[in-house]
Write a structure and sequence with these properties.
The structure is a single chain. The protein is built from three helices and no strands. It has helices at about 25-40, 45-60, 60-70.
Length: about 70
């Protein structure tokens, strides 16, 4: 088998996660979706934004990154 520059793709099977949030957090998420629409001119559902918000948060958390690197 030839050696390819592109590595094997990671598992991309979506995982459904159900959470319960407070009414004030729900309102904040709705407000964020509205701000997103104002900024980019494209309306997105909160449920579509959340995975990217979580990824951005985790990638920018230095304490998490340091702890993960030590593992």
């Amino acid at each position: 088998m030839p050696t390819l520059k592109l590595t094997k793709l990671p598992d991309r099977t979506p995982i459904k996660l159900t959470i319960t949030i407070t009414p004030d957090l729900n309102q904040l998420l709705a407000d964020y979706a509205e701000a997103y629409r104002d900024a980019y001119g494209q309306s997105e559902q909160v449920t579509d934004l959340i995975p990217y918000m979580l990824r951005s948060f985790l990638e920018s958390d230095r304490g998490f990154s340091r702890g993960k690197a030590k593992s």
